[in-house]
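Quick one, T. Sequence first:
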Amino acid sequence: MAKELRQQSGKVLIIDDEKVILDLTSIILKNRGYTVFTAVDAPSGFEIIEASQPELVLLDYMMPDIDGLTALREIKKRFPETYVIMFTGKGSEEIAVELMKAGASDYILKPFNNQDLADRIENVLKIRGFEMKNRELLREKEMLLAEIEAWNLELEARVHEKSEALQKAQAEIVQSEKLATLGYLSAGMAHEIRNPLNSISLFVQLIKSGMDDPEKLEYVDKIVKEIDRIDGILRKLLDASNRPKFEIRDVLIHQVIDNTLEIFSPQIQLHKITVNRDYRNIPPAIKADPSELEQIFTNLFLNSINEMASEGTLGVFLDYDRQYITIRVSDTGTGIPVENVPYVFDPFFTTNSRGTGLGLSVVLRIVKNYKGKIEVEKSDATGTTFCVKLPL
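Structure tokens:
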């Protein structure tokens, strides 16, 4: 009883220089449902593979011009997803090993049995199906791993961003608490110190009015100067913590900057400092007290000029967007030491023996009054940049 043919699917290319083999094999495979292509030499076979992408090639070992082994290597190199079964009339183990090393999936000795041929083809195509599926799964695995890695990186970036925002918020709370404490202390200190200071000033003036000795008068003048210096420190202390009287009107930031730079022109010329104004866009007028804004730039410019030796560069950048006016004040000084950056806005923190450490505290208080932001944007050996953002 004849064995029933199992219908298969798939594309098979037969490359053989013997027409009888081509015709016979083609009939056998077509009867089993395969789509069959034929070629009498390797170059023709390569063209068919490129155009039709068959799953399997039946390739003769002995062929003119390009032999079967060379053709096999070329197919595996150019078309790795096309599997190859070799036809060979030489049944030595050496040839078999050589063919398998070159990438053949199987080899069939001529003359072959029809059923054996069909079984071998079916087996190789099954193996190919499993291997293609495995490759697809591996590609999917790699894509999933890449996606997971991307998600992890995004999550880490978000955590880092939120952590930085939290640290910044905590730092701002601490700064606000410091300013509040300073306000409470400075109000009490100013009251307690100014009372005896006024008495000292009055007594010194009385002493001075009845004194003729030039040397003693010089000492009295020095006392008066020191009294004024103490009073100046008290005023700065109050300015750093409490808002004095102010007058709100329309103010153009670039004009305030230019006016403040004009005040510093003697120092700028003396130290041969180059002023680099970079006004990208002139912002519209904002509601503010011009003297308060002038205090911001007075303190920032003073710090920058003091940090620079001769022939430095003072940079002023100005721009705005829908939310903020951005001002950057930069210098080419030696920079703030990294360990000091977190404390530059703290009251009384200074590395300058002649300073009070209240200038940047005043700046911080004014910027906060206008719901703005200030930070040390950059500080290294090439200089320091302060960035101020004031809301429109």
